[in-house]
Amino acid sequence: MLSFFKRSPEISISELKALLKGNIPFIDVRSLDEYALGHIKGAKNVPLEQIDSFNGKKEAAVYVICRSGIRSKQAAAYLTKAGYQAVHVRGGMNRWDEKRKGGYEK
After folding, report:
1. pLDDT, tens digit, for every residue of 26-45?
2. Which of 28, 44, 58, 100 has its C-alpha lying 20 to 30 A from 106's C-alpha?
3. pLDDT of 42-70, one tens digit each?
């Protein structure tokens, strides 16, 4: 079956945690209010409705997260179509268990 859409790669939360030990491009596409309630340290907030304003480096992978994985999958698809190497984080912040152990900012 032919696909007209280029699918973005995806990773799990545990794979993301390992990558976060380095300095990776990482965006959180939740709303400003959701982001303000708490986010992963180092994540840049680019709400889904503003994803077209993202201006990162196209030669490096950019990791994308939201609350459950739905918006980040949409954002990653948009970014991939725009020429970025976007990687969707499965499960989103609902799967992030570091809220009480560090690696989480308010």
Report:
1. 999 999 999 999 999 999 99
2. 58
3. 999 999 999 999 999 999 999 999 999 99
Query: Using CA atoms, how far apart are residues 68 and 57, in angstroms rounded to an integer?
Result: 25
The set of residues, in sequence order, having a beta carbon less than 8 Å from that of 84 and lying 6+ positions away, is 54, 56, 58, 62
* Virtual torsion, Cα 54, 55, 61, 62, nearest 10 deg: -30
Q: How far apart are CA 67 and CA 95, in angstroms?
A: 9
In contact, 24 and 44? CB cutoff 8 Å: no
pLDDT for residue 3? 45
CA dihedral 70, 74, 80, 82 (to 10 degrees): -160
Domains of the chain: 10-105 (3.40.250.10)
Q: Tokens 């491009």 label which residue?
A: 25
Examine the pLDDT at 89 and tell me if it is beyond 60: yes
- pLDDT value at residue 6: 60
